[in-house]
């Protein structure tokens, strides 16, 4: 499953209670509260909020007048436990007894305090839920004499984390498309694959066909629906698949850099173990252990919101780069089919499914963000996620993340990779690649604008597909290469090879050694004609072979014994052999 959407969703009304000690000995601290503005509105500015005494009444549930202390709650904000009666009964008793607000402490998951219209009209003090953990922290940090002010600052339209998501997404598409295109074209120049023993440096690519596209979309739809109904069971399957695929992607991205290291080139001893019988290099084995360890660490600490998102993003980017390098769309026709089908898929599951579900929730948004009624509270890892950087109730309460699905990177990235391959094919100075990458960035910016205006999850492919497809089509039309760009006909033939220029090679004559008689030199040439021919064509190898023959006493004696000079016919034969050897070497 590839989840493709950008999420920035407010699940409920969050606020803050600013707590400080009455003694003023320590700085104040903000705690998350969940409120319903239909009871009473909270001020947006802390300076306009009333700073009142917090009275700890958590020993009672405030369901009857017997739970009210003597003197009531005059100008105070009581903290009472949740349960035994409705929210309306609690807040009504608090208001009658002079309270200026009510904090209901809950050991369970926080939910907005509800009521009906008549109850809302009767109550004019704010009521909010506070977690039991925060209540304990208030007592531990500030003691029993504390003051608090409830307020709800406005949420920013866009968070700074959008800049980080934009850089990661555009950078991944650009690097992945460039890497995939360059690697694919480079392989076309190679006549023979390099065999490095037990290891292959080049991974096989997968050409996507129209049938594969249809099967892929059907699988995406089926998995998304299954996750919607059986989320708590299938989410762990997705997490396991992500750990495995991310470790492979990280290994693929780091292996080119590790191979440049001069250390660890030795191989492990011979063995009969699976995979290890290929005797991988020690450095590559250590890299595999490192990549698997990173995935395991993320899998164990994936719910640590403080830092686990960094590992998830790193693994996600590595996975996307690996997929862009492995999956190949051979034609622009295939790119158009894939992008348009997933465009319809994305729009349908974000905008149409709310009319088909009982709760009115989008299936895509519900699955990608995690169902609110999920017992596991797990999140799907197939997204880039960055926490909110602005100070706001939403960031304090639920630490939500802005999410960008891997599909919003992979699907346009395959088109960018195709454009880069076509650029190199037609030698167009990468105009297609640059134009498509810029179009992707513009489409992502349009997605952010729609997100800010609509304040709901957006199907990013709704904006990315038109931007990238129309831009690529326009460039091909402008360059009058649309026919070749559409069918990918330029990739059917091998790239033209540069002509081979054969330089004339002269066969030099051997210098005569003045210390050796001419008859002896001629005798050596006759007794070892192979040496003579190699010496004429390659003096270096001839000298090495001559040194070897000089160590053999029996051959030297035979050479000295033969004193006849070679005839003119023998010399002509030797020269013809030399020329034939030169010609065969050039061929």
UniProtKB/TrEMBL annotation:
Q: How does it sit in the membrane?
A: Multi-pass membrane protein
Assigned GO CC terms: cytoplasmic side of endoplasmic reticulum membrane; endosome membrane; Golgi membrane; Golgi-associated vesicle membrane; lumenal side of endoplasmic reticulum membrane; lysosomal membrane; plasma membrane
Which keywords accompany this UniProt record? Cell membrane, Endosome, Glycoprotein, Golgi apparatus, Hydrolase, Lysosome, Membrane, Protease, Signal, Transmembrane, Transmembrane helix
Tell me which Gene Ontology terms the entry assigns under biological process.
membrane protein proteolysis
Which Gene Ontology MF annotations are present?
A: aspartic endopeptidase activity, intramembrane cleaving
| Source species, domain of life | Eukaryota
Q: Which residues form the PA domain?
A: 63-137
Provide the residue span(s) of the region labelled Disordered: 512-587
InterPro entries on file: PA_dom_sf (IPR046450), PA_domain (IPR003137), Peptidase_A22B_SPP (IPR007369), Preselin/SPP (IPR006639)
Q: Where in the cell is it found?
A: Cell membrane; Endosome membrane; Golgi apparatus membrane; Lysosome membrane
Transmembrane residues, as ranges? 160-181, 210-231, 237-258, 284-301, 307-324, 336-356, 401-419, 431-454, 460-478
Composition bias (Polar residues) maps to: 516-530, 548-571
Q: Which SUPFAM superfamilies match?
A: PA domain
- What family is it from? Belongs to the peptidase A22B family.
- Know the name of this protein? Signal peptide peptidase-like 2B
Supply the gene name.
Sppl2b
């Amino acid at each position: 499953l590839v989840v493709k959407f950008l999420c920035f969703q407010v699940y409920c009304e969050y606020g803050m209670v600013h707590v400080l000690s009455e003694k003023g000995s320590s700085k104040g601290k903000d705690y998350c509260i969940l409120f319903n503005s239909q009871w009473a509105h909270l001020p947006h500015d802390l300076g306009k909020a009333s700073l009142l005494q917090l009275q700890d009444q958590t020993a009672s549930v405030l369901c009857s007048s017997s739970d009210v202390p003597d003197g009531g709650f005059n100008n105070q904000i009581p903290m009472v436990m949740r349960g035994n009666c409705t929210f309306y009964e609690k807040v009504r008793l608090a208001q009658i007894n002079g309270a200026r607000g009510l904090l209901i402490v809950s050991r369970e998951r926080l939910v907005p305090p509800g009521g009906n219209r008549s109850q809302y009209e009767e109550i004019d003090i704010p009521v909010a839920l506070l977690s039991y953990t925060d209540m304990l922290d208030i007592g531990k940090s500030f003691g029993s004499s504390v003051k608090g002010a409830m307020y709800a600052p406005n949420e920013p339209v866009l968070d700074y984390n959008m800049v980080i998501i934009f850089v990661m997404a555009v950078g991944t598409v650009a690097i992945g498309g460039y890497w995939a295109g360059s690697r694919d074209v480079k392989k076309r120049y190679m006549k023979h694959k390099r065999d490095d023993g037990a290891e292959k440096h080049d991974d096989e690519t997968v050409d996507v066909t129209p049938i594969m596209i249809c099967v892929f979309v059907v699988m995406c739809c089926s998995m998304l629906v299954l996750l919607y109904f059986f989320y708590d069971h299938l989410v762990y399957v997705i997490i396991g698949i992500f750990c495995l695929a991310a470790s492979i992607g990280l290994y693929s991205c780091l292996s080119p850099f590790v191979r440049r290291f001069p250390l660890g080139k030795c191989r492990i001893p011979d063995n009969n173990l699976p995979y290890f019988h290929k005797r991988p290099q020690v450095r590559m084995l250590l890299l595999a252990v490192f990549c698997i360890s990173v995935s395991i660490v993320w899998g164990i600490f994936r719910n640590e919101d403080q830092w686990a998102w960094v590992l998830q993003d790193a693994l996600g980017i590595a996975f996307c780069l690996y997929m862009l390098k492995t999956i190949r769309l051979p034609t622009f026709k295939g790119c158009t089919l894939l992008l348009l089908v997933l465009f319809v898929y994305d729009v349908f599951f974000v905008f149409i499914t709310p009319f088909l579900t009982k709760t009115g929730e989008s299936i895509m948004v519900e699955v990608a963000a995690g169902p609110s009624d999920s017992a596991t509270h797990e999140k799907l890892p197939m997204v880039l996620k960055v926490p909110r950087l602005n100070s706001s109730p939403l960031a304090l309460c639920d630490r939500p993340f802005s999410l960008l699905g891997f599909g919003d990177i992979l699907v346009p990235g395959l088109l960018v990779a195709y454009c880069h391959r076509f650029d190199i094919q037609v030698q167009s100075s990468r105009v297609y690649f640059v134009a498509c990458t810029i179009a992707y960035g513009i489409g992502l910016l349009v997605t952010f604008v729609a997100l800010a205006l609509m304040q709901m999850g957006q199907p990013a492919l709704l904006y990315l597909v038109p931007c990238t497809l129309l831009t690529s089509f326009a460039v091909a039309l402008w360059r009058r290469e649309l026919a070749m760009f559409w069918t990918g006909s330029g990739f059917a033939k091998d790239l033209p090879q540069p002509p081979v220029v054969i330089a004339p090679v002269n066969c030099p004559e051997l210098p005569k050694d003045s210390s050796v008689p001419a008859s002896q030199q001629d005798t050596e040439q006759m007794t070892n004609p192979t040496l003579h021919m190699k010496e004429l064509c390659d003096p270096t190898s001839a000298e090495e072979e001559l040194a070897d023959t000089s160590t053999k006493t029996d051959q030297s004696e035979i050479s000295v014994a033969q004193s006849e000079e070679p005839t003119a016919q023998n010399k002509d034969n030797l020269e013809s052999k030399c020329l034939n050897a030169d010609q065969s070497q050039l061929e």
